[in-house]
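User: I need a structural model of TauD/TfdA-like domain-containing protein from Daucus carota subsp. sativus for a docking pre-check later this week. Nothing fancy, just the predicted structure tokens so I can convert them on my end. Input:
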Amino acid sequence: MSTESLFIPVKLPQQKHYNNGITFPAVLSPNPEKLSNNTVPFSSVLQAIKSSAAALESLLSETGAILFKGFPVVSASDFNDVVEAFGFLELPYVGGAAPRSNVVGRVFTANESPPDQKIPFHHEMAQVPEFPAKLFFFCEVEPGSGGETPIVLSHIIYERMKDKYPDFVEKLEDTGLIYTRVLGEDDDPSSPIGRGWKSTFLTKDKSVAEERAAKLGMKLEWMEDSVKTIMGPIPAIKYDKERQRKIWFNSMVAAYTGWKDARNDPVKAVTFGDGQALPAHIIYDCLRILDEESVAIPWQKGDVLLLDNLAVLHSRRSFEPPRRVLASLCK
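Assistant: Understood. Predicted structure tokens for TauD/TfdA-like domain-containing protein:
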């Protein structure tokens, strides 16, 4: 079976359409002309990804996000094969806050925090210097209800914030941000930021943890049964060289509104780079703008979402179980 033109664009009501002709996100489904008995062999999907790699990367660069719907991706192993087919290098999950478990190969669970908790908008691992360039998500079990992964274009948020709060954005650009988080020894699955220091730094040895933290530019302050991590000042606004535009590349809203558990106070979790407190009313207005500009397409089993982590922020809505969304991080 020919894999040429296996992918065709489709329209969904949730997509946003911008004046520059971009539709966000791009949504691709199997070409009906390439189906046999209304199906497409999984092996043909992998071949099509490999043969269309340059075109798919170009589309990702143009739109920031591609949702693949209707393809026979059934299991975590299938998803791992899809990720491998793209040929992106794997990025180890070192320094991230979310509790995750390895499932198979390069595939991890997405944030395992409780279903009643929202996960605020963020660029993946924006609070550390080494972050993934691309993210994959895969819906293995679709939610009972809710559980969407809203996405939003980062440069749109920068432009709106710069227009409404120029002084605030100027200070962000001047000072950056400092992120502070207290980690227990082991993972706390009841917390959206409950990753313990052992899994954060992939070691049980405190001296090794300190070495790995230092490579990230992170300071550690050990306490009786936990450790305080201090990252920054680190830029809150980046320049996307490929697209030649500034982006809202930070975890400010996520930290300020969501880094809360028995050990952490979200208001203290993130400050300006000079240590000054952030203005709450601006943070919550930024959250409103993020919601307003976002796209939330309901998950269906087999969906694969590919994000350019420099171009797009993502979040997670609360949900009624079951729901199982898997992830993979790439350089």
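Before docking, keep this in mind: Residues 280-293 form the longest helix (14 residues).
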